Structure formats: structure tokens, C-alpha cells
């Protein structure tokens, strides 16, 4: 272990926030010293978030699988006519939302391809039949429909957005998000992960996150590890997120997501990050972003190893559905809530349900459209978490 790595570990064990260079070094912490790194991250989590892990009971609404981007790791996107290519009608969205509501879900997570109307005439025709010119306008309509006809709270995750669209969606979504993934422009090159993906230009995604801050939108973002980025680029992305949050105070959650290979993607032969790499990255994310930040690692992407994740200082499992699969990673089913509860309790933590709006933002009215505040208030207790009598997940497997 190099002197720099030793010094970095000793500094964080002493309670210091790592510098950028130290954070890069910590991503190479050897396995023998890993418990010390994880312990520092878990202690920071406990100081800022207490001994609790949260999750959101959600319905995953894949509004459209059409997308103008061709990311090397994506199995969600389709071209018109391909198997699995579809755009949901308002009736289909509403039927799915109602089914999830009956099972106790509180969140409607809208995921969709980025600007498919820019590439596909078939999608432009669909939008015209629905009375819209853009996918984001259509998303606003169906988000409002879910609000009007069900008890679910929408959370939109539609990709790059401008200020007008963000402002319009804010009226019918309690929170929104876009994964930054990386700040590496190198990965836009030929044969790289973001080749042929114009909406993955880092500056465009950073601008969306900044505009969300300007509009006081509670926002989810995060990094995707293992897609060809260097450790320095990984840390640079986390620091960019930290800078935006320090400026606007709107980043309610940061996700550390690990690449998983699939047989039908261009990157099918690309190596997946090892669990030790995921644990080190989650721990360094906690140490860089601080005790107060909400840090999530999706449990379904770690399969049987997800019970190791709480040790890395995370405080959230993300959205888990009683009804719908993870359409982005359909081969990775959600763990049952019983399994999540047992993993949480084995770590000495308490499992609690949250909304798509984190408790910190429930108590800050400037971060929520006035029309949505009564809906949120009816679902939460004094700490901003879902009221215990509404936690239907206790009856799930």
C-alpha cells in the first residue's frame, strides 16, 4: 500500500473529509484494510442519518422504451418495430398505477427513453394522436393523471431536460432525477460506453441537474461504475454532484450503481465491477458527500451479496416494487421485503418506508409545489417517513 493510500485512510479514520486525490487512493484500499474504510463510512452514516435504512414502495412505469441514445450497456431502449418496443397509453399507465396502489405502493417511478421523437417518426405520430409535440409534455399529462386518479406520488426520470420542462413537471412530480453516470467525455468516443448517445454528454446532464436546483426540485442523481471510467473520473463525477448540491441544496439522493453485463448489449463482454470495488466506491461516496447525504446502492444489482452493502455507509435501498420488475435490469429481480428487512436487521439497522420525497424535503415547503403538499402530509409521520399504519410492505414476502 503506497504512502499516499496509508495517509488517506488514516485521515478519514480521524474524521477528515478526503481530498480528491485521497478519494482516488481510497478506491484502491486493499482488502486487508477494507473493514477500516467501511467502518469510517458507516460511522459517518450513523452520525448523519442514524441507524436506519429506508426504501420506497414503488410501481415502475416504463412510459416508453424508445430512445435516441444507443448506450453500450443498455437493454431497456428499443427502436420502433423491435421486440419490446412500446409506448404506454394513458389507460395502461393508470391501470398499472392502480394495481400498485392496491398492493401498498406510494411512488410511481416514470422511466423512459430520451427524446425519441427526435429520431422516430412513429413516435411523433403517437404523440400527435395524444395531443402532444414532445415526450416530456406527454409525461406531464400522465403524471397528472396518476395524481388525479390514484394515491401514488409521481417521480419522473426522463433524461436531459430544459428549464421549461422541469418547471412543468415540477407541478405534478414530488421529485425528479437523472443519473449523471460519469463526467468522462472520453467515454463518448467510438466503441466506448456513450458512443452514439448525445444525451450522455456530461455538460448536458450537469446542466439539467443545475436547472433542477435553480427550480428547487428535490433531485436524485448518481454514478454508474464499471463502464470504462477511471477511478479519477469516478471521483470527479462525485465532486461535481457535491458542488451542485452545495450550490442549490437539492440533491436528495445519490445512487452508486454498478454495471451488470447482459447477453444482448454491445458491452456484454465487458467485466463487471467486483463487490469489493462497489463497497469501496459506496464508502468513498459517503465520505466525500458527508454524513447528511442519502446514499443508495440498488440491492437487486448485487444479487445474493446485497446484505454486505449496509457496512459501506449507505442509508437507502432505493425503490422496490411489489408488482413490477426493474425494467432497466429485468434479469435482476427485486429482493423480497422480508429479505431486505433481515439484511437490514442483521446489520443492526431499522428498515423504514419513505416516499419518493425524502424526509428532509417533506419539511421544506419551498421544495414542493403547493398543490402537492397536502398529498404528502397525509402520508407521513412527524419524521417525514411513511406513517406506520400505511406500511403495507410488512405483509409482503
Textual characterization of the structure:
With 397 residues, this protein is an alpha/beta fold. It has a single domain (3-395), classed as TIM Barrel, CATH 3.20.20.70. Helices cover 37% and strands 14% of the residues. The protein is built from 13 helices and 9 strands. The protein has helices at 3-13, 20-26, 34-49, 90-102, 121-130, 135-149, 163-170, 202-214, 231-248, 275-289, 337-346, 359-362, 373-377, and strands spanning 52-64, 107-112, 153-157, 175-177, 219-225, 251-258, 295-296, 316-320, 350-354. Strands 1, 2, 3, 4, 5, 6, 7, 8 and 9 form a 9-stranded parallel beta sheet that branches. α7 (163-170) links the parallel β3 and β4. α2 (20-26) crosses α9 (231-248), α3 crosses α10 (275-289) and α4 (90-102) crosses α6 (135-149). The longest helix is centred in the middle third of the chain and has 18 residues, at 231-248. The termini are far apart. The relative contact order is 0.16.
Amino acid at each position: 500500500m503506497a504512502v499516499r493510500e496509508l495517509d488517506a485512510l488514516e485521515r478519514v479514520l480521524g474524521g477528515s473529509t478526503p481530498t480528491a486525490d485521497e478519494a482516488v487512493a481510497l478506491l484502491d484500499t486493499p482488502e486487508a484494510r477494507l473493514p477500516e474504510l467501511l467502518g469510517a463510512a458507516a460511522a459517518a452514516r450513523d452520525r448523519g442519518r442514524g441507524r436506519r435504512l429506508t426504501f420506497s414502495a414503488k410501481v415502475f412505469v416504463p412510459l416508453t422504451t424508445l430512445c435516441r441514445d444507443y448506450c453500450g450497456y443498455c437493454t431497456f431502449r428499443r427502436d420502433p418495430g423491435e421486440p419490446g418496443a412500446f409506448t404506454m397509453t394513458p389507460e395502461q399507465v393508470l391501470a398499472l398505477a392502480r394495481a400498485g396502489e392496491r398492493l401498498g405502493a406510494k411512488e410511481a417511478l416514470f422511466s423512459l427513453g430520451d427524446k425519441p421523437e427526435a429520431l422516430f417518426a412513429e413516435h411523433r405520430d403517437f404523440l400527435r394522436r395524444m395531443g402532444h409535440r414532445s415526450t416530456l409534455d406527454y409525461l406531464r399529462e400522465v403524471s397528472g393523471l396518476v395524481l388525479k386518479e390514484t394515491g401514488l406520488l409521481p417521480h419522473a426520470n426522463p433524461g436531459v431536460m430544459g428549464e421549461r420542462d422541469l418547471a412543468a413537471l415540477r407541478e405534478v412530480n414530488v421529485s425528479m432525477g437523472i443519473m449523471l453516470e460519469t463526467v468522462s467525455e472520453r467515454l463518448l468516443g467510438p466503441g466506448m460506453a456513450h458512443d452514439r448517445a448525445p444525451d450522455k454528454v456530461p455538460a448536458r446532464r450537469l446542466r439539467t441537474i443545475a436547472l433542477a436546483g435553480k427550480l428547487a426540485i428535490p433531485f436524485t442523481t448518481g454514478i454508474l461504475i464499471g463502464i470504462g471510467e477511471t477511478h479519477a473520473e469516478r471521483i470527479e463525477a462525485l465532486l461535481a454532484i457535491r458542488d451542485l448540491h452545495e450550490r442549490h441544496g437539492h440533491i436528495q439522493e445519490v445512487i452508486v450503481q454498478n454495471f451488470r453485463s447482459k447477453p444482448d448489449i454491445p458491452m456484454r463482454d465487458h467485466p463487471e465491477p467486483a463487490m469489493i470495488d462497489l463497497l469501496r466506491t459506496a464508502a468513498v461516496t459517503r465520505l466525500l458527500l458527508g454524513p447528511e447525504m442519502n446514499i443508495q446502492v440498488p440491492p437487486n444489482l448485487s444479487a445474493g451479496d446485497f446484505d454486505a452493502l449496509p457496512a459501506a455507509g449507505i442509508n437507502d435501498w432505493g425503490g422496490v416494487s411489489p408488482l413490477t420488475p426493474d425494467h432497466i435490469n429485468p434479469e435482476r429481480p427485486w429482493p423480497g421485503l422480508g429479505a431486505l428487512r433481515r439484511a437490514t436487521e442483521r446489520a443492526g439497522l431499522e428498515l423504514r418506508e419513505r416516499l419518493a420525497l425524502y424526509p428532509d424535503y417533506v419539511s421544506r415547503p419551498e421544495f414542493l409545489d403547493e398543490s402537492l403538499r397536502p398529498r404528502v402530509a397525509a402520508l407521513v409521520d412527524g419524521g417525514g417517513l411513511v406513517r406506520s399504519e400505511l406500511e403495507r410492505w410488512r405483509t409482503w414476502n
